[in-house]
């Protein structure tokens, strides 16, 4: 644990159910603190995160024994410097704004129209499960190239991976579900790489293969795309609608052309940001304010 840093114990079950009251207290009273139950130091203030996030010489993304590497494989998010840049550039032909505009936009609209059409006969529906989830999942199926996964399978795999890589309490059932999902994704990758699968040449899977990325990295980067590429768009879609329904004046402004849907998304993403934490490994001794960090510790 870091030296000279306040220790804050938490009720892990209560923190999992609703972390915000505890985080607010930390931010006010102990903005940098060590939490034994997480075996990590938490940085809870924006200015501290900004200071440390880009200091990869100290707060390294490389975590050989971290949950993400163990359960998903070493992906670009767990690499620093040149290694990260190389894999990020290899993925860009599938993920760039130009690709979204020229390749994916039409497919997104097609699948979204299909989802909307499927809801016309319903008298009521669940905004997340019946609309936002399949819209997000269809988009991710297209981008990754894993068209052999159903929206429900992709959504389930995404949630199981997220649960697994944040399973700092070590629950075996959570780890097992994560491993089942990563194995299933590997099977889907193998199917789409087989001759005659009709894998899109613009898909993330194909562009990584064409770039000559090692297969182990391809698998882990596809899992990375699924882990963060489903739940966040899904929740942003549903969240934007929820926000407008709870602020009728803003909804009226959008419907009357006074604000665009892009502005709705950008404001919602600013207001309720999707990223809660990203673990880093302490690579060398470091002091920030009153907190001293020792090598091989973990910080959030």
What's the number of extended β-strand segments?
7
- CATH architecture field of the largest domain: Orthogonal Bundle
Q: What is the averaged pLDDT score?
A: 91
Beta-sheet strand percentage?
5-15%
Distance N terminus to C terminus? 13 Å
The share of residues in helices is: 55-70%
Order of helices and strands: HHEEHEHHHHHHHHHHHEEEE
Pairing-aware structural class of the strands and helices?
A: mainly alpha
CATH superfamily of the largest domain: Cytochrome P450
- Major sheet details: 3 strands, antiparallel
| Rg estimate, integer Å | 21 Å
**CATH-assigned fold name of the largest domain:** Cytochrome p450
Topology, element by element:
Layout: H1 12-17, H2 20-29, E1 32-35, E2 40-43, H3 46-53, E3 59-60, H4 67-72, H5 81-95, H6 97-119, H7 127-144, H8 151-165, H9 172-193, H10 204-210, H11 215-229, H12 231-245, H13 248-255, H14 261-271, E4 280-282, E5 286-288, E6 291-293, E7 298-299
Antiparallel strand pairs: 1-2, 3-4, 4-7, 5-6
């Amino acid at each position: 644990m870091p030296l000279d840093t306040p220790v804050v114990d938490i009720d892990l079950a209560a923190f999992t159910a609703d972390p915000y009251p505890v985080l607010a207290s930390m931010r006010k009273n102990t903005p940098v603190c060590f939490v034994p139950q997480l075996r990590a130091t938490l940085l809870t203030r924006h200015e501290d995160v900004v200071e440390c996030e880009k200091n990869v010489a100290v707060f390294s993304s490389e975590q050989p024994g971290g949950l993400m590497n163990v359960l998903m494989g070493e992906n670009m998010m767990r690499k620093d410097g040149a290694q990260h840049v190389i894999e990020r550039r290899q993925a860009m032909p599938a993920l760039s704004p130009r690709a979204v505009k020229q390749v994916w936009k039409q497919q997104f609209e097609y699948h979204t129209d299909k989802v909307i059409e499927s809801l016309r006969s319903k008298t009521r529906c669940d905004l997340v499960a019946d609309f936002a989830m399949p819209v997000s999942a269809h988009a991710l199926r297209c981008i990754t190239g894993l068209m052999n996964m159903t929206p429900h399978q992709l959504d389930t795999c995404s949630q199981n991976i997220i649960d697994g890589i944040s399973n700092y309490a070590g629950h075996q059932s959570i780890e097992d579900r994560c491993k089942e999902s990563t194995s299933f994704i590997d099977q889907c990758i193998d199917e789409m790489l087989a001759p005659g699968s009709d894998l899109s040449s613009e898909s993330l899977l194909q562009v990584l293969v064409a770039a000559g990325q090692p297969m182990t990295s391809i698998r882990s980067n596809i899992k990375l795309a699924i882990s963060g590429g489903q739940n966040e768009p899904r929740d942003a879609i549903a969240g934007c609608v929820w926000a407008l329904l709870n602020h009728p004046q803003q909804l009226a402004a959008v419907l009357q052309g006074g604000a665009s849907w892009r502005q709705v998304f950008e404001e919602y993403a600013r207001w309720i940001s999707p990223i809660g934490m990203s673990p880093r490994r302490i690579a060398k001794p470091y002091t920030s304010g009153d907190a001293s960090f020792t090598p091989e510790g973990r910080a959030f």
